[in-house]
Amino acid sequence: MNSLSIMDGGGRRWLTTTGMNPPRRVVDVDDELTADEAYRLAVSGTGLTWHGDFPNARNLLAAMGRRCPSAAGKSFQDKRNHQSRRARILGRLLVPLDSGHVLPLRRGPDVRAACTEVYGPSETASLVSLPELLGVVGAHEWRVKGVEIPALGAKIHPHHGVFSPVRGEYVDLVAKSPLPATELAFDIGTGTGVLAAVLARRGVQRVVATDTEPRALACARENFERLGFAGIETLETDLFPPGRAPLIVCNPPWLPARAHTPLERAVYDPGSRMLHAFLDRLPRHLTPGGEAWLILSDLAELLGLRTRDQLLAAFRRSGLEVLGRKDTRPKHPRATDPRDPLHAARAKEVTSLWRLTTRAEPAPD
């Protein structure tokens, strides 16, 4: 959810999609500010409102990032905490926006369309962290450009705050696994709608896509219309729609850890709450003899956040049995990037499609 508050000194509104609070103290800075001084002020909690050249602001942000300590050798949770602190420090480099989301900086890009998509129309001056603005602009470019999905022969256009399907291996698993039925499928936590669209492309006659996030459903509906699948039903609900289906697909967040931003909720699931809720309620929504396709990476296991025995035990507790599993290796760039803090685990990562069914028919909700 977008957070808006009034800043002291100048009356500019604070824009954020991450829930980060505005700095209590803000000073005006320009191209004369050194990276060492900028980093010192940011670490102390001071916000730096930039009034110089925009490319120089980006260069300063990069220089501040190089001054942040390394997270090498830390545990996963320590790395997460380090990442959060780094984001807070770098997020104190701020840029002003005039009414209409006009960026009043030398050589500044036109950010009006990108900001309007995320924050809505603006008739007042505002202030936004430079990392957030760069993220908003980058998301707008992805939304315009789209992500090529070979299984669809078309592109999916992600919105800001909705996880982009750049990791194509999980899409390919759904595209290539034999369908147990074609009359009805549920896509739980649809996000951009990519898996629902793949099911419809494969001939599933009726697909119901659910999500708890209105922005995700808006993104999915836009993609369905663009792809010619306007008949796919969307529903804002916690996990399941009413009734049962012979095929239920779910690609939940893969890591049982706390999300620091709304976008991270697509990756992090504290205490595996969504995963366990999906498994526990699944038997009441799967038709007898039907299949649930659960797409999970084993990254949590490689990081020591969950064991394979704990996952299998969760299946058994929910009255589920495994019909089979199909595995694949990630192909995205981070899987082979030695600079990634999680490289040792990512190099071994396997993504799996678990085919689950019920052991006995439970009473419906």
TrEMBL record:
GO molecular function terms noted in the UniProt entry: nucleic acid binding; protein-glutamine N-methyltransferase activity
User: A GO biological process this protein is involved in?
Assistant: methylation
Residue span, Methyltransferase small domain: 155-297
Q: Which CDD domains does the record cross-reference, listed alphabetically? A: AdoMet_MTases (cd02440)
The record's keywords, sorted A to Z, are: Methyltransferase, Transferase
On whether Methyltransferase is a keyword of this UniProt record, the answer is yes
Provenance organism? Amycolatopsis regifaucium
Cited InterPro entries: DNA_methylase_N6_adenine_CS, N5-glutamine_MTase, SAM-dependent_MTases_sf, Small_mtfrase_dom
Name of the protein in question = Methylase
Region Disordered: list its residue ranges: 324-344
* Stored Pfam families: MTS
Q: Where is the composition biased (Basic and acidic residues)?
A: 334-344
